[in-house]
Amino acid sequence: MKTLEKKYIIPFILVTACFALWGFANDITNPMVKAFSKIFRMSVTDGALVQVAFYGGYFCMALPAALFVRKHSYKSGLLMGLGLYAVGAFLFLPAKASGSYYPFLIAYFILTCGLSFLETSANPYILSMGDRESATRRLNLAQAFNPIGSLAGMFVAMNFIQSKLNPLSTAERALLDSEQFEAVKNSDLSVLSKPYVIIGIVLVFIFVLMLVLKMPKTDVPPTDDNRFGPTIKRLWNNKRYRYGVVAQFFYVGVQIMCWTFIIQYGTRIFMQEGMAEMDAEVLSQRYNIIAMVIFCVSRFICTFLLKYIKPAKLLAVLATVGTLLTVVVIFADGRLGLYSLVAISACMSLMFPTIYGIALEEAGEDAKLGAAGLIMAILGGSVMPPLQARIIDMGTFLGKPAVNMSFVVPMVCFVVIIIYGVFVERQNKKMIA
Predict the structure, then answer these.
(1) Are 141 and 303 contacting, i.e. CB atoms less than 8 angstroms apart?
(2) Considering the domain boundaries, does residue 221 fall inside one?
(3) What is the pLDDT of residues 235-288, one digit of tens each?
(4) pTM for this model (two decimals)
(5) Is 188 a member of any domain?
(6) What is the pLDDT of residue 75?
(7) Does 134 have pLDDT greater than 80?
(8) Cα–Cα distance between 253 and 380 in angstroms, integer?
(9) CATH assignment at residue 133
């Protein structure tokens, strides 16, 4: 059984490029929580509003995007996504000119409305490019290129933003008078905005390329049975789908928390070892890049393993290992906890496309609208990080460093994913019996 037929190779490559593009946006953004906190002299909780705006855009636009794709086509959805993504990126210029925090949140929100269109269109489009039996493996293959974009985003964040920001520590910035603070802030905002403007230009090029290229239609013509109300009812009654949306919510939450707060976790450890705050942050971001490399390699390995191990079973096993590693992150003192936090990325690599594929496995044409629920579940990336940030802001929690204890939240998320994997595996066995 072929994972991909020859006639789909060119559109598969072009759509897969979109996976890399939203991976770039996700992972250039994670370190910005720390960057904005420092630039505007804010708490970690206030800085985490970046994630609220970012993943809030996913949530708000997912259903309109699904309805748009349902009415038009996957290609139209992809073009709309690329356009909104570019507009959000270019809005960093007026946001920088304003010198305020909230215009950046608006830019992030519009940018991720575009990402919501891209994901709502690209994921089911990839699933539809061939046999149903190979759909989850095909989606894992396409999603394997997502971390390549993520690596690029991390590389740009570290080398073209974090390392070029003013080296003054958070404490030193607090001592600046208003005029000095404004000068440092405006300089840092210029550094932060440039990569977003450049990616906006790249997006315009990809938009034009997709506009002129012919993309094959895999859409099934709508029928009376595909009306909004009956479709929602069928999806709700589909436990595999319904519980999949819940699992996806917690998965995205755990992914964003582990990649966002690795900087706070590593910075505390390296500063304890005598390192300056700026150097500790840059080194922590390098560990974040190592985590993404592990994630990327593990995605290809897991895609291969799916030939021999059922997706739900592999999902449950990896979530169990992720839970155990998170326990080490919480209770270990020093670099062992950091190494465990980096290793968690190997466990997460399979999860998003596998939950997505399993949830839509029996959805048929309902997958177009069902995709919206799974993309709306990305709201977990907006809800969970502020919860963890509030614990971090306490300084200490139950007598231990709060940044360590805050990883109880990701641990709970992994437990939910274990439960979903076990549920689906048992359901599969019942179907066979």
Answers:
(1) yes
(2) no
(3) 788 888 889 999 999 999 998 888 888 888 888 888 888 787 777 877 887 888
(4) 0.74
(5) yes
(6) 86
(7) no
(8) 4
(9) 1.20.1250.20
* Residue the block writes with tokens 């293959």: 141
Range of the domain at 380: 6-216+226-432
Tell me what pLDDT residue 223 has. Answer: 46
Q: Is 1 among the domain residues?
A: no
Would 210 be classed as within a structural domain? yes
User: What whole-number distance in Å separates Cα of residue 111 and Cα of residue 341?
Assistant: 29
* Count of domains forming the chain: 1
Least confident of 131-140, 228-237, 276-285: 131-140
